[in-house]
Design brief:
The protein is mostly helical and 256 residues long. Helix 3 packs antiparallel against helix 4 (71-92). The protein contains ten helices and no strands. It has helices at residues 2-26, 28-36, 45-67, 71-92, 99-118, 130-144, 148-165, 171-190, 192-207, 211-248. The radius of gyration is 21 Å and the shape is globular.
């Protein structure tokens, strides 16, 4: 059943991303202006579409392994697809200074690694029924569509600001916003394992009619998170310039 959910999610994501890619590629100038604030950057639309396809493959395989609590496989997908491959492609192609090639190769490596490593193994093809996949796809859509606004809201925290700023500022100034969004995303991903474990644990406790105990433990956890967040925020404000100088060099220290 889990494999049918995987294929249903992959097909659904593939169709959505394909439609988005067709729209972007058919209107390159408008898409370039909408995303980057400059119609002359339309050469970036193709690699952005390719990277979107790679991320769809990554998201599906990562969600499959995370849902089965196979966290070693899920963590490796995150490390390679979202960290190692971008650094690898940027490092190898740095001399060419071609963002197009970097994004395109990064997306291609994400697709390849997701297929080779992330796809379910030891599954008989004959046991997978088309009717089952269609049924699972409908269930996923009924479950997922009401949650789309929250995902757009979360992503807008990191993407909407730079998109708007790109229409009024040079891209060299927008990089500060992009850097902030990257840091925000990194901190969010750092607590993702906690959310996965917490969801399964709380669900099990509620099924055992232990709601009072759940409330008590959640209150303790939220209190601890609040204090740690305040402490980390103060440290970040104090040492932001030092961190930026060490990480990105003195040229970015003014953005701290």
């Amino acid at each position: 059943e889990a494999v049918e959910y995987f294929w249903a999610a992959l097909i659904t994501d593939g169709l959505l991303v394909s439609v988005l890619a067709i729209i972007l590629l058919s209107q390159k100038s408008f898409s370039s202006y909408w995303l980057f604030g400059d119609r002359h950057l339309n050469e970036l639309i193709l690699p952005v579409a390719a990277w979107s396809v790679g991320y769809a493959f990554h998201g599906t395989t990562f969600g499959y392994h995370r849902g089965r609590l196979e966290m070693n496989a899920a963590n490796l997908l995150q490390i390679f697809n979202l960290a190692a491959f971008p650094f690898l492609t940027f490092g190898i192609l740095a001399h060419s200074r071609s963002i197009v090639a970097m994004l395109a190769w990064s997306g291609a490596l994400m697709v390849a690694f997701s297929i080779v490593y992330g796809f379910p193994r030891r599954v008989a093809i004959g046991s997978i029924k088309l009717a089952g996949i269609v049924h699972k796809a409908r269930k996923l859509l009924r479950y997922g569509i009401p949650r789309i606004p929250s995902q757009f809201g979360f992503m807008s925290l990191t993407a909407l600001g730079p998109i708007i700023a790109s229409h009024y500022l040079p891209l060299s100034e927008v990089t500060y916003l992009l850097l902030g969004g990257t840091l925000f995303t990194a901190f969010s991903l750092s607590v993702m394992p906690l959310s996965v474990i917490l969801l399964s644990k709380v669900s099990r406790m509620l099924s055992q009619d232990r709601g009072t105990e759940v409330c008590e433990r959640l209150q303790l956890m939220l209190t601890a998170i609040f204090h740690l967040t305040v402490f980390a925020t103060v440290l970040g404000l104090v040492f932001a310039d030092v961190g930026l100088r060490v990480w990105l060099g003195p040229a970015f220290a003014g953005g701290g």
